[in-house]
Amino acid sequence: MPGLAERARRTFGWFDDRLHLKAIFDSTAGHPIPRRSASWWYVFGSGTLVCFILQIVTGICLALVYVPSPNEAYASLEYLNYEQNLGWFLRGVHNWGSVFMVGLMTIHMIQVFLFGAYKYPRELTWVVGCVLFLLTLGAAFTGQIMRFDQDAYWGLQIGVSIAARIPFVGESIVHLLQGGPIIGAETLSRFFSLHVFVLPGLLIGGIVVHLRLVLTRGINEFPVEGQEVAPETYAAEYEELLEKTGIRFFPDGVDKDIVFAALVLFGIVGCAAILGPPIPNGPADPTLINTAPRPDFYFLSLFAAFALMPPYLEDFVIVYVLPVMVLGLFAIPFLSNVGEKHPRRRPGAVIAATLAMTTLCVMAWEGLDSDWSPHMDAWSGTAVPTHLVEGRTPLELQGALVLQVKQCRNCHALDGSGGKRGPDLSNVATRLTEDQLVRQVLQGGGNMPAYGKNLTPAEVTAVVAFMRTLHPRGQLPARDSAPPAVPASGTAGS
Amino acid sequence: MTPSRLAVGLAALAFVWLGCDSLPGKPTEAERYRRPSEILDFESLYAVNCAGCHGSEGTLGPARPLADSLYLELIGRERMGRVIAEGVPGTAMPTFLDANGGTLTQAQIDAVRDGLFENWWKPPTKAAARKQLPGYAQPAAARAARGGDAFSKYCADCHGADGLGPEAPGERKANGKKGGAVLDPNFLALVSDQMLRTAVIAGRTDLGMPDWRATSDGGPMTEPEINDVVAWMSERRP
Asked: Labelling B23: which of A18, A131, A186, A196 has CA 20 to 30 A away?
């Protein structure tokens, strides 16, 4: 009677005889790579793939509970969060999986760009990678819609509004995406099928092509200063490198990828366990006006860019700038596909990558802060700092009340609390004289509406009296540089 | 698998299972989204709707302190509910009932009112009960002509004989005037007679203004004096 191992070997042999599994495995996972390419710099691509596989697994589990119907999607999310045992954790892993996937994919792209790995003969690998990047962003965007909360609803509104600006076909695209002219019953179903069927299917197809290209043209060699790419000699040089330093990816060069995959999984599970899933912030109901929707982090920079740019630029950016940027990304290997690969010999590439990432990060930070949005409940919910109340006269206190009740605080902070759309008023008396304050309140200006018709003279006097007290101790309030030429009536002799 | 290994495995699984339930990332009920109209706890409602003007702790806001047992005793539960629901026309107090254009339901207004009394109202002590609380509302029979005398007697020390307070902030300490201008026409235009009466009776103890029992003259003001001084101040309104 043969042992268990022997029986397993025989069974595998039976299948292998028919399917040639070992040969397929050896020629794929066992493909040769230059020894130096088994580097910590080369782990981000496989890390992204690990995230994708995790997304598929957790996505299937979520789909067992999630109901893709506008009336029930939000409730099924709340069920996962609060009722289903560890449902919140599953959501957390799927959410953080997508965050890690987009993050690692971005790092992978930057690394490929800086190492010149897109150059001859890997132009198509880069192009397919760009397609995968856009598909992943698409999956992230549609994933946010799946929550069908306030963020999802308004994110969707902005997404389709952007699509609607495309000349000639904009309206048809919106109709196709939404299943009608407005967000309705069919909209969620369409985005659900995009998120769980279309985009993952395309991603799997794209990954297959991407990995096929890695097999046919080999993994990029580690860049060496002074070693230039020339299409005529590259293939021979790469062959020679493989002969001299080649190792098999599996089992010789895979160790760092395995360690990194473990770190990625640990990071995702850790973030899910400690930070949890995003809490749905209210059902997708446009009548709920007490909301400050924000996109997930991948789109924060775009959100900030559209919020900060003047309205007349929006069409231009949507129709020209964004497509040109995407085309530029695809065109990189065709603009420069020979010459130096090492980043030290390509300062332009380093500067471009640094500038692009700095801009994205700063814009994302701005998007997180979104100081341009008024805090709609600051007037009734953000207390006047107590040190600005103590020692004030009855009129000044009434002025502070006017500042609250007329909702000035929604845009203006006191001591940093309140809206940030307008300037902080904590030291306003040092900047504006009494007359200037009155003028500013009555006539507005500099992005502030005029309040002349909304305030009584007594209210204006009171609010200005209060603001005149807003200066640091020991620093006098601003005053006119010259006394008025004609004394005001009633102040003769002063 | 030996029984001991099985037991260790099961114990580890149970530990993970139970431990997962108390991980910091688990969403709590407090984080769960509730429609604004479903929020009924006093702390949340007060923080969003009242703290802006009345102070986050119920004191030291520009508007009347609500963490003031004497004031709550004076106004009473029923009237407090009405003021929140309907606001005080002509003053900064807005209407809060949704039917009147506000943002709160009647149940939420009841929750705010009850929360104010549960948190900040204390039954009057015996000594305080002896000094009978004046009536909340200003009677029509007040004699404004006599109010000037009451003002000079009880208010002028802090607010100035002319009721216009110290002329400059630095003057306050020098001449002992602590209060501001209460006869300033703009101030009077912004407040109701009821606000003046409430201030005379309940003071603003958080800002150093005493209630009607502890005026600078020593003894408590009589109810007719309170009526008269409020009527007199009201007459000064342009």
From this structure: A196
| CB-based contact A23:A230 (threshold 8 Å) | no
- Would you say A117 and A340 are in contact if contact means Cβ atoms under 8 Å apart? no
* The predicted structure's pLDDT at residue A385: 96
Minimal CA separation from B81 to chain A, in Å: 18
Question: CA-based diameter of chain B, in Å?
Answer: 101
CB contact under 8 A, B62 and A461: no
Asked if A276 and B207 come within 8 Å (Cβ–Cβ), the reply is no
| DSSP H or E stretch at residue B118 | helix B106-120
Tens of pLDDT, residues B58-67: 999 999 999 9
pLDDT for residue B169 is more than 70:
no
Give the residue among A94, A296, A102 at the shortest CA–CA distance from A196: A94
Model's pTM, two decimal places? 0.84
Domains of chain A: 27-367 (1.20.810.10), 378-467 (1.10.760.10)
Q: Are B181 and A277 an interchain contact pair (Cβ–Cβ within 8 Å)?
A: no
The pLDDT assigned to A369 comes to: 86
Give the integer Cα–Cα distance in Å for A314 and B132: 69
Q: What is the pLDDT of residues B175-209, one digit of tens each?
A: 455 788 999 999 999 999 999 999 999 999 999 89
pLDDT exceeding 70 applies to what percent of chain B?
87
pLDDT band at B166 (very low <50, low <70, confident <90, very high): low
Contact with chain A for residue B163, Cβ under 8 A: no
As given in the structure block, the two tokens for residue B206 are 């958080």
Number of C-beta neighbours around residue A171 at 10 A:
12
CA gap B118, B112 in Å, rounded? 10
Q: How many residues are listed for chain B in this entry?
A: 238
Closest CA to B192 of B104, B92, B120: B92
B172: enclosing H helix or E strand:
helix B171-174
Statement: residue B50 has pLDDT above 70:
yes
Cα–Cα distance for residue pair A282/B138, rounded to 1 Å: 46
Token output for A430: 């040092």
Encode pLDDT of B137-151 as tens digits: 999 888 899 999 999
Radius of gyration of chain B (CA): 26
The radius of gyration of chain A's CA atoms, rounded to the nearest angstrom, is 30
Low-confidence ranges of chain A (pLDDT < 70): 1, 484-494
Neighbouring-strand partners of residue A246: A34
Shortest distance between the Cα of A94 and any Cα of chain B, in A, equals 14
Q: Where are the alpha helices (DSSP H) in A218-287?
A: 231-245, 249-252, 255-275
Q: Which of A153, A290, A384, A410 to mutate to test the interface with B (most CBs of B within 10 A)?
A: A384
Which among A383, A395, A409 is the nearest to B180, CB-wise? A395
Q: Closest Cα partner for A244 from A40, A32, A29, A27?
A: A32
How do beta strands A32-34 and A246-248 pair? antiparallel
Residue B19 near chain A (CB below 8 Å): no
